[in-house]
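User: Before I run my own analysis I want an independent prediction to cross-check against. Here's the chain; please return only the structure tokens and, at the end, one sentence I can use as a sanity check.
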Amino acid sequence: MDDTLIWVRAVHFAATLSVAGVVFFLSFIGEPAFRAVDKNEPIAIIVRRRLAGIAWSGLALVVVSGAALLLLQSAQMSERPLAAMWSEDIVSTVLLDTDFGNVWLARSVLIVPLAVALYPSYFSDVPSSRWRRGVALTCAAALVGTLAFAGHAAAGSGFESIVQETADVLHLLAAAAWVGALVPLAVLLGAAANNRGEPSLAVARQATLRFSAFGIVSVAIVLATGIVNTWELAGSVTALFGTEYGRLLLAKVALFLIMLSVAAVNRLQLTPRLVGATDAAARQRALRQLRNNSLIEASLAAIILLIVGVLGTLPPGNEQVSWHAPYDRFAAGTGTPGIFTRTEPSVVRLVK
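Assistant: Structure tokens:
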């Protein structure tokens, strides 16, 4: 079951970041770039339509993977087969008596206003109302940020817990703003490359410059909060190199550094060529390379999300080093035989 849980977690995270990434991209990059040229240009219509498909597919995947995650997590907590989840009221107990279940309910509620805000005019050439755009942005950010409260960061207590949860929320939001917007950027750049003409090129320039500035801020936040999280969850060089959790964390960092190097090439070499080159062929080459590099970054991010899926099923490195330390009671199972005790920061087990 652990392998299935890892894949489901990775898909759920990826789908959530994808939906939020589309909303962030259109709000801060896409629509401002379209308005700078002409919001009714063919490229704007094409990109909106394609991003609508990504957003709705991602939202559907969030719902399906979220339901699967609830069942798998409940089965792991109770150490009972999946067939017993409903017959023995285990799912309802998890939903009402655990932090994971409470967060799952909150995130499920957020999906409704987000879907309402996105339908039907969010992706059309008719400007959405300010409140609709605000609701979509707020719900998308909350959908991403609440992932932090079902993970390792939620297991702490006191000031340490506040610092770790804050860092985790900011880490997820910045990741959605950067990683989640990579595919939308690639879609826009691909559309600009296929619809040759000065308006399409102007949109691509505006979007690339905006994404470059947006990405710098996002990467800085990802880096700073990643350092905090690494220190909190590993805590020592021994835990970082001597535990499975620590080694996976190092692999994640290595992939992040590769993504950062690709982003640096985009920022320092390809963006100036796209913006400043006078030769049309040179601009087209820069455009296509930027699109390809964005897809490379997105692929590396997908591997990182798979690692995140594994990390969520493991106790942190600092706990693996001090495995003999007793765990605190997590929550009482009201109306059920036994109690819930913590075996991992993001997982509880129903002890018979």
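Sanity check: The radius of gyration is 22 Å.
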